[in-house]
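Hi V.,

You were right to ask for the full record rather than a summary. Here it is.
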Amino acid sequence: FKHKYLDNCSEKILCDSCTSLNECGWCSSLGMCLRGNLAGDNLNECESNKWSYKQCNFSKCESFTKERACI
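Predicted structure:
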């Protein structure tokens, strides 16, 4: 049995839409939305200083596009 919410993070391509979900956070070094919480992503794939949870912290981004996607 598969819950739809399990795919919510990977479907998000912008930081704003990613961090609006409680179960997701944005990894600026990977440019990806990953499952996780305030402590970091669930799989420990993202360095802690590149992790944004609940808000997009663009000071942690290498760059960002006009759509505010942190990359």
